[in-house]
């Protein structure tokens, strides 16, 4: 798809772009299904299954700590997959990341409980969570840039938004399967052993995802990089030449979205059921409906970004998330189910305003020959600083303060930092990136090679 910004792509190129966008959506949905399945289980199941000797509060904190382990592993996955994605191609690395996530999730469903093997149960849980994190670390940036690099002119944000839809899509899929399995089996059987079924189902879902992903063609941007002999030996180091100010501001701009999203998707389940006496099923259904709203609004926001520019939308969305964080927990704390639904649906409506374009903002930071490595560094750095620690920090703040006030201030503070980072970032750099590959050959850090 070698079109200039002013050329219309051919019918075949448009079909390839559409097929790639749907393939990245399918793949990221399945990977996030596996990842969020763990989050839901950590909030509701794992404290009893793997940490029964701890108090309910300490057990929940321990379960969320294992949830955070996956985020600690994500930068490693991002660096490894990013390196090879910039050297041998995007397609192969995305296939491997999907397989790795499927293996990790399937084996989690087979881990014996603490009662059966004692200390080794949480050890195995943490180990497989690391495998999950490494797999997802390779997926996040790779899927976004793969879809974006196939995008027709003028639709960069729209196509980059398809992989972003996999986040709420995976949450919806995970929660629906979780709910259906629980409803069919009953609470006791589900808590005892039925929770394993959704994890074991990962094997089938990933097999389907692989069939779809293997049919995707390599990124045209990477094909041009290879044809122009612009593959570099150490792409991560080369990506640092973008400069520390832009890298740091980009990281700050995206960190709040991750933190708020994981408090909304994961921490809310344990907080609402254990401290506010909301029914677990009610909370899961409400979060699922909010995630579905998040999913369907992403194409709307990305089309607006393509038509009117994404910087104003991103800054306005960042401000809106901050304001809603002020109201979110007070609405939940009323104990009124209707107001709780309003709080959760508000998150589902506001979070996608920034989430839908943060991928394209990150990808546009780097030239094509180091894009996978650089984007992975920013994306996974934001994920670990924001999302990975958010449920654990929120639980610790709740336990120490006895109320949600500390959690609210934590979210408001991190949103203010991201808003300031976004404003500074857009003053520093133009909204749109230059052509995917620089016209002049790039001088590699330590020589070239395939």
UniProtKB/TrEMBL annotation:
The keyword Cytoplasm does not apply. PROSITE patterns: MFS. It comes from the Bacteria. The chain crosses the membrane at residues 61-81, 93-111, 117-137, 158-181, 193-216, 247-270, 282-301, 313-332, 338-357, 377-397, 409-429. One of its GO terms (cellular component) is plasma membrane. Residues 20-433 form the Major facilitator superfamily (MFS) profile domain. It is found in: Cell membrane. GO terms for molecular function: symporter activity. Keywords: Cell membrane, Membrane, Symport, Transmembrane, Transmembrane helix, Transport. Signal peptide: none annotated. InterPro entries: MFS (IPR011701), MFS_dom (IPR020846), MFS_trans_sf (IPR036259). It is a multi-pass membrane protein. Belongs to the major facilitator superfamily. Metabolite:H+ Symporter (MHS) family (TC 2.A.1.6) family. PANTHER family: SHIKIMATE TRANSPORTER. May be a proton symporter involved in the uptake of osmolytes such as proline and glycine betaine. This is Putative proline/betaine transporter. The lineage of its organism: Bacteria, Bacillati, Actinomycetota, Actinomycetes, Kitasatosporales.
